[in-house]
Amino acid sequence: MDKNTFTGLFLIMVIMGASIYFMKPSDTDLKKERIKAHADSVKRGQLPKSAEASAKFTDTAKTPTKVTVDSAALKSPFGATTVGAEKLITLENKDLLVKLSTHGGKVYSVELKNFKTFDKKPLILFDGSRNHFGLTFTAGNNSINTDKLYFTPNATSLNVAGQDSGAVTMRLSYSPTQYIDYIYSLKGTGYKVGLTIKPTGLDQVVANTSTINLNWLTSVRKQEKDMEQERRYSTVYYNNTDQENDYLSASKDEQKDITDKKIQWVSFKAHFFSSVLIADKGFDKSNLAVSTDVTDTTDIKQMSANLVLSKNADGSFPMLFYFGPNRYSTLKDQGYALEKQVDLGWGPLKYINRFAVLPVFNFLKQFNWNYGLIILALTIVLKLVLSPLTYKSYLSMAKMRVLKPEMDEIKGKVGDDNPTLLQQEYLKLYKKAGVNPLGGCLPLLIQMPIVIAFFRFFPSLFELRGQSFLWMHDLSTYDAIITFPTIPFIGNHLSLMCLLMTISTLIYTYFNNQISGASGQMKYIGYITPIMFIGFLNSYPAGLNYYYFLANMMTFLQQYIIRLMVDDKKIHAQIQENKKKPEEKKKTGGFQAKMEEMMRQKQQLSAAPKKK
After folding, report:
1. What CATH number has the domain bearing residue 302?
2. What are 258-298's pLDDT values in tens digits?
3. What are the phi and psi torsion angles at 508 (to 5°)?
4. Which domain holds residue 262?
């Protein structure tokens, strides 16, 4: 690989790495921007009430509030339901422990029984007054919000573990024959909770009974080790009835109105767990919002959804909750394309992960190996598949290494004063020798999408959560060998696997320089990128750095084996035979021909007399 080719490849890597890291705003900038954007939005009245509440209710949720009801309120529609005592109704199956509150008739909290937080505490998606869920409508010229009213349950608890299914009804009474029922249903297993809202006898009371406005707000709790990493992958996802998926920004506060298409489901997605609300007929209109309270150390984000839902022919509004893990296979089993909220990358990366990496990973998972061994096996399979490209790349670099003495001789004759002529002479030599100067780079560039695909695959892989291997207690987060006060570019810790990955990359670069014959400054320029990436990957999952470490070592092993198979003397002899072939019989690649023409034109322009 000559100097210009190596420089071009190096610059591609530097630009990719630098653009990812340096274009990312700092944590301080993000915090300032979130606070300023939220304050400006509230001031201008652009933030919807639900989003404004979601940014504020976390401050007041920890303090119980006293409800004072005057006589006028008691005389208003549903006035009797403004007074009451909050009681919790428990729904339970094999996988979920759901608590319903009589205050608002809503889901008060959800515990996933088969999972724990990073610090081994019960995993609760949300709880208490941090969660708001209610209908808003007009009755008797009064604005009604059911989230603030008291419901009456028909049971104190329901445990369907080992049974087929069961249901509990929460009733909001206007009169003995006029009411709104929230019917919650639960199967013996699974992560779905059915919710059917059924108004009865309210056609003359409620202004519009054909649709309902539903407001849902929640503050998503911290579950994982690193809050910043968890916030990086948490936001509001949604899918319309045409199966088109989209999401709000995960890096800044955002709110969005969706009126052109019906949304089938909206998900308050955390890194590894989601709370999803599904409607078969879809929500007619939607306003979604996500915000981050930078002062909060217990909740990662606040999310809200204002939804308009149309009723069925029987007058009911059927919906469905999903409270569960963001495991791709589990989400896919639920239907409704819920698996689309798992970030597998963009463009071709998504298809590489979905149709190549994920099937291989799932196949290896069947053997019940430790996930560290599964990643090892996955890396071996990938390297075997890509071994022809690795061989071709090595062979091309070997040819360039054999040609280096002749290239140095040309450089001695032409000198450094005329780089255009020097490159032109190099191209003539390549053509005579039958060597493609980019032959060593192109196979590496072809493999680059796979490297980037894994960068998106491992952080989204639920299966790595809580899985240990060697000293790594959790492959889904970083493995800090030492912690210290925050240092720019590095953070507040040093990841051992990231350090090993960097060292392996430096070793790989060293031996690659031996293969390519790089000399002078070119021997050292390749060491800059690994040092730069240690800061970027230091906070990423140990499983990702472990894969990159294995990939480096296996590439080194491949090249070592190939080097034993490739004889430089035979390559030199073949190049000399190519030089002896008649000029017209030598094939010139399209790219090389274009390079020759470009160099020829540039040489002619530099040789042309300048006009006075």
Report:
1. 2.70.98.90
2. 988 899 999 999 999 999 999 988 999 999 999 998 888 88
3. -60, -40
4. 47-342
Instruction: Give the residue ranges of DSSP H helices in 460-567.
Output: 496-516, 522-525, 528-537, 542-565
d(CA 193, CA 77): 30
CB 155 within 8 A of CB 185: no
Three-state DSSP at 102 gives coil
Residue 240 counted as domain residue: yes
Residue that is last in its domain, among 312, 342, 372: 342
Tell me: do 321 and 437 sit in the same domain: no
Q: What would the two tokens of residue 65 be?
A: 């509030």
Q: How far is CA 304 from CA 39, 218, 286, in A?
A: 17, 6, 10
Two tokens, residue 524: 């050292």
Q: Do 271 and 407 fall within a single domain?
A: no
Tokens of 134: 């209610």
Same domain, 337 and 364: no
Q: Are strands 254-258 and 245-247 parallel, antiparallel or unpaired?
A: unpaired
Model pLDDT for residues 545-590, shown as the tens digit of each residue: 999 999 988 888 887 888 787 776 777 777 777 766 665 544 555 5
CB 318, CB 212: distance < 8 Å: no
Residue type, 87: K
Query: Residue 302 in contact with residue 217, Cβ under 8 Å?
Result: yes
CB 218 within 8 A of CB 315: no
Same domain, 402 and 471: yes
Q: Are 220 and 362 a contacting pair, CB within 8 Å?
A: no
Split into its structural domains, the chain has a count of 2
Residue in 372, 516, 506, 414 with CA at minimum distance from that of residue 7:
516
Q: What is the DSSP string of 232-299?
A: HT-EEEEEETT--EEE--SSS-EEEEE-SS-EEEEEEE-SSEEEEEEEEEEEEEEEEEEE--TT-SSE
